[in-house]
Amino acid sequence: MSKNQANKNKAYQNYVDTKIPKPHLLKNCIWAFLVGGAICTIGEVIHRVIESHYKYSHLDVSDITTLIMVFIGAFLTGIGIYDIIGKRAGAGSLIPITGFANSIVAPAMEFKREGFIMGVAAKMFVLAGPVLVYGIGSSVIVGILYYIFKK
């Protein structure tokens, strides 16, 4: 690359840097904290209500709460509300289990016009697939290490 071209690239990069909007880091962190906390609080309320009204074990209530939260995340994604929440909250909407539901349903909704097989079914795990692969893979490695070092 010539010196002239390098100067043009640097000038262009400086121009781009001046035009890119700067994120409001503190405001984004506060929104992520508030929305993520609200989602977790809703999950805790659901957990406490189920635990106080039904005679399930604590682990069963945790499983039921997880299922309900996944359903809520998928439902809100399906009707377009979770995207609005995600735009405002950022990582605050990704961390709870509802973010996982959103990562599965959103690609499926995007490709539904291509049909159920080649659209919804084929694209459903595009985003969540790597999460599942690395999650399962790392849990297997941890399990093996636990088994080896436990003895």
From TrEMBL:
InterPro entries per UniProt: Spore_V_AC, SpoVA
Keyword field: Membrane, Transmembrane, Transmembrane helix
Transmembrane segments: 29-50, 62-82, 89-109, 124-149
Record has Membrane as a keyword: yes
Keyword check for Metal-binding: no
Protein name per Swiss-Prot or TrEMBL: Stage V sporulation protein AC
Organism per entry: Alkaliphilus flagellatus
Lineage of the organism: Bacteria, Bacillati, Bacillota, Clostridia, Peptostreptococcales
